[in-house]
Each structure stands twice: as C-alpha cells, then as structure tokens.
C-alpha cells in the first residue's frame, strides 16, 4: 500500500459529502471576478501560481477567492452545526462521539503499545546480556530512564501538550494558517530548550551521584544518558510533526512509523549487544535510532498531507516568534503539569536507591513501574483521542458536545483501568521473572505488584481528567494540582510510611496513592465548577490571530 493511502484520514471530517466536493462548493461560492487592471501580478501566470486563481473566458477578469466570503460561509456552516448540535439528544451525541472516539483511540492504543512494548523488550534483553551483573545493569538502565523522563520527556511531552491543545483548537476553528504557525512556534520553543536537555544528559552521572545514588550504578546510567543525547533533535522534529497531524485526527502514521522504527532499531540493538563488544551499550543505541527512523518516516507524511499542501504559509519565523510569548505560558504550564506528575514516580525511584540493597530495590521498582505503565497504555488512547475531540469541539464553539465528551473520557478511562488491574494481577509473576534471574529482585517486585493494584484505577482517573485539563488549555491548574498532590503530599507521606511505619518500598508507593486520592477529589470539584461555554469562548479567542488568509476546510465534525 502506498504511503499517501496509509495516511488517509477517515476521521477528519464528519460530513455527508466527501471533503473534496465540500471544498469545491465552498470555493465556488466564494469566487469573485477582479478586473485584470486591478490584479497585482502577471495574469499570464495565474494558472501556474495557484489553482484558486483562473482567468474568465473573456480574459478581462481574474476569478479569485474572496477570503472574507470563505470565512463568512464557513462561519455560517459553523452556526448551523452548533444549532443542530444543541438540538440533538444527549444520548445521540454520546453515541456518535463514542463511536468516533473508539475509532480514533484504537490506532492510538496501537501506537502507545508500540512505544512501550519494544522498550520493555529492550529492558528484558538488557537484563540477560550479563546475567551475573543483571541487577546492577537493570538498576542503571532504570535510573537513566528516570533522568530521561524528567529531563527530556517532561519538556518534550509538556511542550507537545501545549502545541497539541492550540493546534486542535485552531483546526476546530478552521484557522489553518494559525495551526502551522503554532507548529513553527513550537519548534522554536523546543530549540530554545534543547541546550538545557543536552547539558543535563551529559552531566547525568554527576547529577545522580549528587542525589545519593550508588556511584557504580550512576556511572553506568551516565553512559546510557550520553548515548541518548542523540535522540533530542529527532524527538523535537517528531513531536512537532505529530502535533500537526494529531490535531487533524490523523493517527495511523504514528503506528506505522513506530512499528518500523522499533523493528529496525530492535534488530540492530540485538546484534550490537550480543555479537559485538558493546554489550549492553549496544541496546542503548536502539532508542535514538528508533526516533531517527520515526522522524524520517513522518516527513513524507507531512509533505503529502492535503491540508499542508493547501494551507502551508511557508516559513514565517517572525510571525512564529511573535506567538512564542502568547503560548509560552501554556507551554510552561504543560511542562510543569507533566513534570510534577512525574515527580511522584521519580522520587520513588530515587528514594528506592537510598534503601538497603539499592540495586535490588531499584530493579524491583523498575519492574513494578513497567507493568503499571503497560496496564494503563490502552486508556492513553482514549485520553489522547478524547483531548483531540474536546479541543475540536471547543474550537468549533460546541461547548455542550465538549462537556459530554469529557464525561465519556472519564468513564472510559476508569473502566479500562479496572480491566487492566485484573489483567495485571494474573500476569504479575511470569512478567517479573522475565526481566532478571535474580530471585530476590523478582520476589520484591511480585509482592509490590499484588499490594498496589488499586493504583491502576486511580491512575486511570488521573489521566482521564488530565486529558480534559489539556484539551481546555488549563495545564497550569493541572500542574498546581500535581505539585501539591504528588510532591507536597505524596512524597512526605511516602517517606513516613516507608521509614516510620517500616513499609519499605511499598510505603513509598502508598504515599503516592494518597496523593492520587486527593487529586481525584480536587479534580472532581474543578470539573463540577467548570464552565464549558466560557472555555469555548477562550478557544475561539486563542485561535483568532489572523496572520494570514484562512484556507477553507470542512467542519471537524
């Protein structure tokens, strides 16, 4: 199957007629005739310049598209759509959006699983490169992953969250020029943050030692981090392209790029680890190599995207830089939201390194964390898809629909998390033993999994409501909730349970769960007080930039 057909988006427009026919009708209705004398440009080159400009049969006029008329037509369509949406029965909207959300979530779940499963395979692989030192190497690998999560993933995912929000709102409001300018502004923001990420990774070993980690484990982790500096430019490029496509509800390319990327990098990692002197460092090469392949695969997807070809305004660094202050607050809030959420998990991993028998504790905690991540991967598809649909609804001014989608997302994410909890209980023992032959580490990990199963539905609710925060552009509120609940409450309570009550590693997690419970109640109160109509107005205001002419596009619904 050819690449352009792979990325064909069946979810992009919810209209009766095909997209091309709808665009043709809108453009035809917006045509005006301009006398040749008033036309700025060479009339002989009109056909070459744009298919939207054409001479009349007499040759005395040039037929052009009036952008104001296009906007008026689309605004009228939007008003009609909002009126029709308000007349619909709530259950009809729920049924319609549930079907769309499931279709949107399935490829996202596949993409999410393709992100985590190969990493799990690499972690299992690295524990068997040198069985005699598997615990130490696994502990170092987990610590390096912790640093990457805080120093790279926090920034990449946080900024990506902000750009996703603004791009989805711009798409829902049919402001395509602004969508691409948001992407360009996001690229500039990533570039500004890149030197910090590089410096932090290069100094990763020193940072871990300063935090009290075992020097031998920290040195090995530093080698992993140094190799992963190579992924930063490709991660930035991939994140920008992902935001542009995801705002249009195009998700299948992520599945294809992730699958091919991990196949290529996984094979190379195996060969380097078991058939060259690199050993476990050969496995570390797989991560940046995978990001390289994924990024290169998305480039032709963007270039072949119909919306890109029709509405790309060209590189406009001045206009994009003007957007940086406008979206920097949202970007910083998104980074804080993601980072503070990770702080609870991160401090557990760091504090595990301070417990007796640090290598075993870090390894067991890494196994437990990986199975928790695996259990809630399916609900991430629902949450991300829901955030896109809520963002599109708010951008189109459909506050009632956005509110109903939010409820669907919350109920769906908690339900899927409960199913994941049951499945986790069944696979705990064989899963833990697949990482390392160390009996003590696997025993601690299995006990931890069985004790802390309730954390999975709590995380389901957390991710569900954070997708609503994200879609509404309220990342700063989520960041404040995360900081207070996960860090201010969760970490001290975890230390109290672990040290004062002698609960050990499980006590650290009980403290985190206590923070999640507080977050759940705070989130429910925030959701109850939320004014969806005001959010729809804010979404319209956020995308009303008018740097350029807005090209026509069909309604996101």
Automatic annotation (TrEMBL):
CDD domains to which the protein is assigned, alphabetical: MATE_eukaryotic
Family named by the database record: Belongs to the multi antimicrobial extrusion (MATE) (TC 2.A.66.1) family.
GO terms under cellular component: membrane
GO terms, molecular function: antiporter activity; xenobiotic transmembrane transporter activity
Listed name of the protein: Multidrug and toxin extrusion protein
Source organism: Globisporangium ultimum (strain ATCC 200006 / CBS 805.95 / DAOM BR144)
Annotated InterPro entries: MATE_euk, MATE_fam
One BP term from GO: xenobiotic detoxification by transmembrane export across the plasma membrane
